Amino acid sequence: MKRTATPTFVLSIPLVVKPGEDRILIGRMEAGRRLYNATLGEALRRHGFAEAVQRLAAHPHHRRQEIALRRV
Fold it and tell me: Measured on CA atoms in the order 19, 25, 31, 37, is the torsion positive or negative?
């Protein structure tokens, strides 16, 4: 089933911080990014998602199954 395109808008507002605060913010964002990626990787590993994708890619008719996987 194809999704209908809905208009989306992104508003970017520059964050004004003091010189010392930018290092703190960058460090905290980097720590958050690493924690998120580690948590996501662990969840995917526990659910066996990576192995399922590898099995589908190895299958001769993987293109049809890849499309079916995207629908899920």
Answer: negative
Query: How many domains does the chain divide into?
Result: 1
Q: What is the pLDDT along the chain (72 residues), one digit of tens a residue?
A: 566 788 888 899 998 999 899 999 999 999 999 999 999 888 888 887 777 777 777 776 656 656 666 665
Q: What is the pTM of this model?
A: 0.52
16 within domain boundaries: no
Structure tokens at 67: 């499309």
Q: At what angle do helices 49-58 and 62-71 cross, to 10 degrees?
A: 150
Q: Is 44 exposed, middle or buried (0-12, 13-18, 19+ CB in 10 A)?
A: middle
In a domain? residue 43: yes
Domain that holds residue 45: 22-71
